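Researcher: Quick sanity check before group meeting.
Model: Go ahead. Protein one:
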Amino acid sequence: MLFDPRPKVKREDLFDRERELEDLYKNIDKPIIVLTGIRRIGKTSLLLVFLNEIDIPSIILDLRGLKPNYGLRDLYRLLAKAFSKKLDKFRDILERIRAITIAGVEIEIKWKGREAISLSTLFDYLNYKRTIIAFDEAQKLRGSRSKMILEAIAHAYDYDENLTFIFTGSEVGLLYQFLGVDNPKSPLYGRYMHTISIERFKHDESIEFLKRGFNELGIKPPQKIIEEAVDLFNGIPGWLTFFGNSYAGGIRDVNKIKEYAIRIALNELENLVKERGSRRYAIVLKAIALGYNTWGKIKRYVEEVEGKIISNSILSNILNTLENLSIIKNYEFLDPIYKEASKRLKIRP
């Protein structure tokens, strides 16, 4: 179903991503593939559909819940969970590894002590057969353990020709920071990475997506309603799906659905401001949402709100961070719902 809010796993439920799937198939022999795109654009759906179709064993690590100060225990727990889901595909390899115990349908990995296994060694074992290792929202791997992870991947890049790594990331700047694309000190610096950028639907594609999704449910909304939704959600599949489910669930007022979407986005932005520990993020977001679209205008707005002069470097850091998080680009919001939500951010003392 096109309007299933969960990530898609079958091609027939994945709308208009034939080009991206073909790109993946053509380049799956590359050591590293990077899938990028803003939130709710469908990266995970594309990845899952591809991995379910291709006749190559794979594991996928869902890193969305990984805490910023994660340790080896947290990382190996995710690895164990990923292998447990594909135990039938990897049992022959896992049984050879002394640091791994197979307990029924789950596995345990020894991550410290005499018989612990390093990531590099684990990758060497997996190299016994063609394998894909996918990291969903890979920017979450940033932190004190990132160099160890990158060194293991660099080792596999050089010596494990049967492995392909796929990285996805909605916070594109942070993803590239983690991979060290432009950092001479990064273990992966200079390594080729094939990048696939997932774009929003065009206007006509958005209309077709909604019509086809409603047709699956036996619903035929007025053309005017569909046009309003397309204009509002600007080709972002996740929001279009949210609209389709809300309308099918009985909410026939586009403005009411818009209001619910804004509340979701507002909660996400409030969590972002809280995580960053500075109300200035809220001020800057609100400034851009209100139409202050140059560095100087934003600076003057922030200073008016705070009643004091702020340093150029602090404002630049905030703007760079928001760009790295793929929330803004060139002083414009990448998601129209985030723009509306930012107007409602409360500036706390």
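Researcher: Fine. The other one?
Model: Protein two, sequence then structure:
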Amino acid sequence: MSRVTPIGILAFALGFGVATTPWPSTAADVASRTFDAPMDRVWTVTESTLKRLGWDIDTYDRAVGWILTDPRAATDSKEFAGSGKGLRHKLRISLKVLGPSRTTVSVERDVYEEKRVLWMIERKPVAPADQAVEAGILDAIQQGL
């Protein structure tokens, strides 16, 4: 009987592309806007705006000032029982206090092509064509304020 080592598991995962993550975006890809409102108000409006626009929040840290959304389809994707293929994206939103009544919100979008067969997932980063999604979220936050 052979024994599976952690190195063997790692080699298997890397060889089949299991759970690879998209490359982080560069700072030039980040859309941001400064609002004349305190951090608490901007945070509340940002959360409600994301929910209203259909983005589910994956994790957040209010003390640090960031929100990560769950990934969702960016275009029509093909989903079957054991496989799927399509373009997906997720958001990373950062909130930074500039003063008692000024807050900067940055929206960064990771776009990637995902191919899934059973438990094997392959993700390849894709450069977004534009920043329309990011600008739309910042516009919606501004309207909420």
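Researcher: One line on it for the slide.
Model: The CA atoms of residues 80 and 134 lie 29 Å apart.
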